[in-house]
Design brief:
10 helices, mainly alpha
Amino acid sequence: MARVQKKLVQKKQAQSKFVQYKALLMKDVRQELRTREMLTSMVVYALLVLTIYGAALAQVGDKLQVVSFAGGLLWALIIFTSLLGLNRSFSHETESGCLEGILLAPVDRAVVFLAKATSNLLFLVAVEVVVIPLFFLFFLSGAQLAATTPMIALPLLVGTVGVAGVGTLLSTMTIDTRGRDVLLAILFIPVAFPLLYACVSATTVAFMGVEGTFGTFWSSCGMAAAYDVIMIAAAWGLYEFALDA
C-alpha cells in the first residue's frame, strides 16, 4: 500500500513538473512569436557575418578551397549568432521583473533550465534553417559537393543541442553582470571548444567526402554527443546555484 501511494505521489510530481515545463516553454515561444526580437536580430547578424565572409573570400577563385574549410566557416557563423541569441534569452525576464516572479514561484529550478534550454534550442534551429541554405547559396553553389554532404545534419543537431544547453547555464550566470555580452563570450568559447572542435571535424569530413575518413566523422560525432550528455547533466545539477546566486 505504501509503495502504491509512493508511486502515485511520484506520478503527480512528474505531471506537475511537466505542466510547469510546458507553461515556461510556451511563455518563451509566445513572447518570441509576438515580438520576434531574438529571431530577427540573430538572422540579421548572421546575414552580416555572411557579408563579411563574402568580402573576405571574394578573391578565392577555386571553389574547392572554400569546401575544404567550409565546416569551420559554418560553425563560426553558428557560434557567433548563437552568442547573440543567448545574450538576449533572459532579456524579457530581467526587464519586466518576470525572473523574480519565477524565483518566488514553487517551480523546480531544473524545470526552468530545461524549459529555457528547449526554447533556446528551438530558436537556434529556426535560425539555422534560414541561414544554412543561404550559406550554401552564397559560397558553395558552384562547388562540387560530396554525396555525403547531407550528413552534416548530424553534427549540426548534436552541436546545437550542446550550445543551447551550455549556453543557457552560462547566460544565466551572466544575467546581472556588467558587460555580460563580452563575459558570456569569454566563458562560452573555452567551455564549448571541445564541442566546437568535434563538430567542425565531423562537418568537414562530410563536406569533403574523402574515403577512409568516416571513422573520424563518427568518432567526432560520438565525442560531441558525450560532451552534450556530460555538460548538460552538469548544467542541470548546477542550475539552481546559478539561478539563485
